[in-house]
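Running this now, will post back.
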Amino acid sequence: MPNTNSLTPSNTPSKAAHIKALLIGLFIAGGLLFVETALAHSAYLRSNPGADAIIATAPAKVEIWFSQELFRRKGENTIHVSGADGQEVSSGETQIDDDDRTHIWVEVLPNLPAGTYLVEWRNISVEDGHSTEGSFNFTIDPQTAVTSTPMEESIGIPTLTNTPRPESAPQPAPTIAPVSTNVLV
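Update: finished.
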């Protein structure tokens, strides 16, 4: 009886097949490494005022939350707020929250006038040491009837949430279903 467990030239994997398998493995490992690296940066999650928010009154500070803890190094995590004329209206240094190191803020000058403001930020992630930066706008409009403050996570497209209904909107009357009092015996 012939030995079927031994490799013969007809069923031996070729050198090309080994190289192909090795290259596929390296490609997959490299792709996973790239995805891990790409996701390692500390991305913008939300802010107050929110990106593209329209608010009725000036904020006392601008706050931003990120997806990762930030590296604590003076001057590395910054928020700069400027008006339409380009003049900076942020006041003092950017602060990192000691209890939540994904949260930074900067105070702004009191009584900012109506207008659109540019918020530019930069951070350094504790996880990978890389710097990330971005910007968004918010508008102060005392005439606005409804204040919109987007606060949900964002991937570049602000989403308006938590927008209250105007007081003058008619509210539907509650309906009550009739209750039967007949008892069948």
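The first strand starts at residue 44 and ends at 48. More later if anyone needs it.
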